[in-house]
Design goal:
By secondary structure, the chain is mainly alpha-helical. Strands 1-2 form a two-stranded antiparallel sheet. The longest helix has 28 residues. The mean pLDDT is 80.
Length: 111
């Protein structure tokens, strides 16, 4: 059975999700956090972005058309970019675990 590039890309994202969940479980308790309204706005905008990108029914305008070739080399390049991007996103968390310096998308005070 031959696996396609999309399978590898999905595997990379699954590993990022596992890292993220482990980080949530290991996180210190939060003493002060952003407001509920601000947090809800961030979640709503993120959900809208996911729907626009991955739901075929929302292929509005240029979002409904392919803008790069479906050639094999483009798919492998996409895998390489995905790996580099995910590594770049995870790297600050790994560095902050070693140095103890905070690195987060939101500022918070922990015990």
């Amino acid at each position: 059975m031959r696996l396609d590039v999309q399978h590898y890309i999905n595997t990379v994202w699954l590993l990022v999700a596992i890292y993220w969940v482990v980080g949530i479980v290991r996180a210190k308790p939060t003493v002060k956090r952003e407001s509920t309204l601000s947090s809800a706005l961030h979640v709503a905008m993120s959900c809208a972005a996911v729907l626009l990108v991955w739901n075929p029914a929302t292929g509005i305008g240029f979002l409904g058309h392919r803008f790069v070739s479906a050639a094999g080399w483009v798919q492998w390049l996409g895998l390489a970019v995905t790996i580099c991007g995910c590594a770049f996103a995870i790297w600050p968390g790994l560095v902050s675990d070693r140095t103890g310096a905070p690195w987060s998308r939101l500022s918070r005070i922990t015990n």
